[in-house]
């Protein structure tokens, strides 16, 4: 498969982001962390890096368990952000609020996917038809044909003019 | 021309590729998904090519593919009339039974929006047997049909693309999106097995083999059902007793029996009190009519 210019740009961008993240992590790791209560976060992208030589254990729904040192998860096309949820307490870096340390426990990353047209199809919004008003016109003239005491008249058209007359009915 | 069998073979080949992925087939980052048994209620397709009965239909826009039964359910549940909801019945009469005057039953209501959709749908659906067909539409709310397409190279700009019957094949290289319903069996080249999920794909080759029509009409909303049934039975019993009394020339009992039976029937069915006490039965359309599909796609 040929590497297109776009793919090359994306690769270099990803490498840049990775090095930026690595730099942030390096700065934060050498500073202090504080214990926080918050366990649920929202982000477009999340990176997990093993704190030591031991690999990360990764389970993806429906797949065999995996192992690795650095894991990056991001939403590119899904408009919803990722939800990152830890089941144990986290430590937050004092210098970078977006850097955390999880001493133990499991962190679950998920993202609701929505299929907009299906939401339309599944819509439970029911429109109750409105009863037409009972105040009916006394006289309706259609191409010379006169109708007296008719029911309410509804007019539809792709394009139509409406001319209002004065109180005496003269136009 | 691309044939249905060729698409079918491509999907089967794709399934084998996904089951035993090789690095050459899937360069880094590329993930393919395939299924020989999936169900989807709605599929969004960009610029699809449709192969059906040896014909090639090309639609140069984004369209939605769904079963006719599913679309009818949506329209029936979209509007209701206050009190006893007669809208689902009107839809059946107007669309499926061909009764052109069925809309007159809604003459007391402002049906400008609803009648536009019913009239549009009636142009392509007018027979109960079409419920197992599929339809391409441009939008659900409001309903917009496909009015511009290319059929075997000839451009149609004033015709409406009507109901199509499976089996049919669809291919697109511009993107597709759909949700697979349980019990779909999907495999991906990265080893995952998925059941129900929303798939966004770049290239898609798909065949629709049939529609599983599980849509039914149900009536609900009755209150105090036991009392209502007892009242109905009592009315019938008094009516029968009255008739038997007439047979044995006991005219007094005959009169009493008939009067009581009619009074009970009035109380049960026609009185204002019965409408509030027993409730008004409401008709609703439930269930799904997913399309049974096979596909091979590269995930985006």
Structural features, described:
The complex is a heterodimer of chains A (171) and B (300). With 171 residues, chain A is an alpha+beta fold. Chain A has a domain of 109 residues. Chain A contains two helices and 13 strands, in the order H-E-E-E-E-E-E-E-E-E-E-H-E-E-E. Chain A has a three-stranded antiparallel sheet with strand order 1-8-9, with no helix packed on it. In chain A, strands 2-7-10 form a three-stranded antiparallel sheet, with no helix packed on it. Chain A is rod-shaped. Chain B is α+β, with helices and mostly antiparallel strands and 300 residues long. Chain B is built from seven helices and 16 strands. In chain B, helix 2 runs antiparallel to helix 3 and helix 5 runs antiparallel to helix 6. Chain B is elongated and about 95 Å long.
Q: How is this fold's topology laid out?
A:
The complex is a heterodimer of chains A (171) and B (300).
Chain A: H1 5-29, E1 33-36, E2 40-43, E3 45-49, E4 56-58, E5 66-68, E6 70-74, E7 82-86, E8 90-93, E9 100-101, E10 107-110, H2 116-121, E11 127-128, E12 139-142, E13 145-148
Antiparallel strand pairs in A: 1-8, 2-7, 3-6, 4-5, 7-10, 8-9, 12-13
Chain B: H1 4-19, E1 32-46, E2 49-52, E3 55-58, E4 62-67, H2 68-78, E5 79-80, H3 87-96, H4 112-122, E6 134-139, E7 144-145, E8 149-151, E9 154-156, E10 168-172, E11 176-188, E12 193-194, E13 198-211, E14 216-220, H5 225-247, H6 251-270, H7 272-277, E15 282-286, E16 291-299
Helix pairs in contact in B: 2-3, 3-4, 5-6
């Amino acid at each position: 498969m040929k590497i297109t210019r776009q793919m090359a740009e994306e690769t270099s961008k990803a490498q840049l982001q990775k090095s930026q993240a690595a730099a942030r992590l390096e700065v934060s790791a050498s500073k202090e962390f504080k214990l926080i209560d918050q366990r649920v976060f929202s982000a477009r992208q999340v990176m997990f890096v093993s704190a030591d030589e031991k690999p990360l254990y990764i389970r993806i729904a429906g797949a065999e368990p995996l192992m690795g040192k650095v894991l990056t998860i991001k939403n590119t096309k899904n408009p919803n952000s990722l939800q990152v949820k830890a089941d144990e307490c986290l430590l937050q870096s004092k210098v970078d609020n977006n850097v955390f340390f999880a001493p133990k426990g499991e962190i679950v990353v998920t993202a609701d996917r929505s299929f907009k047209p299906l939401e339309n199809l599944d819509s439970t919004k029911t429109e109750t038809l409105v009863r037409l008003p009972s105040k009916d016109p006394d006289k309706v003239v259609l191409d010379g044909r006169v109708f007296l005491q008719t029911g309410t008249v509804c007019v539809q058209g792709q394009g139509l003019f409406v001319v209002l007359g004065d109180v005496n009915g003269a136009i | 021309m691309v044939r249905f069998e060729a698409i079918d073979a491509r999907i089967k080949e794709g399934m084998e590729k996904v089951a035993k992925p090789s690095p050459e087939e899937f360069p880094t980052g590329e993930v393919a998904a395939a299924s020989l048994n999936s169900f989807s209620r709605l599929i969004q397709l960009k610029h699809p090519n449709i192969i059906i009965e040896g014909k090639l239909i090309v639609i140069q826009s984004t369209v939605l593919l769904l079963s006719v039964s599913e679309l009818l359910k949506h329209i029936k549940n979209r509007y209701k009339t206050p009190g006893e909801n007669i809208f689902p019945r009107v839809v059946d009469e107007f669309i499926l039974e061909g009764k052109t005057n069925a809309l007159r039953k809604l003459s007391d209501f402002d049906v400008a929006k609803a009648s536009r959709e019913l009239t549009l749908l009636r142009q392509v659906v007018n027979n109960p047997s079409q419920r197992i067909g599929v339809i391409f539409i441009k939008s659900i709310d409001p309903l917009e049909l496909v009015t511009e397409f290319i059929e075997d190279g000839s451009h149609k700009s004033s015709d409406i693309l009507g109901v199509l019957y499976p089996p049919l094949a669809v291919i697109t290289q511009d993107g597709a999106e759909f949700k697979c319903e349980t019990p779909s069996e999907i495999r991906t080249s990265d080893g995952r097995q998925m059941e129900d999920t929303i798939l966004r794909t770049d290239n898609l080759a798909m065949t629709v083999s049939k529609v599983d029509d599980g849509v039914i009409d149900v009536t609900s909303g009755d209150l105090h059902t036991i009392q209502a049934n007892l009242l109905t039975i009592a009315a019938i019993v008094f009516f029968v007793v009255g008739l038997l009394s007439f047979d044995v020339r006991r005219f007094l009992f005959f009169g009493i029996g008939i009067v009581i039976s009619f009074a009970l029937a009035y109380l049960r069915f026609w009185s204002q009190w019965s409408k509030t006490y027993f409730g008004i039965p409401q008709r609703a359309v439930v269930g799904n009519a997913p399309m049974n599909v096979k596909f091979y796609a590269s995930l985006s």
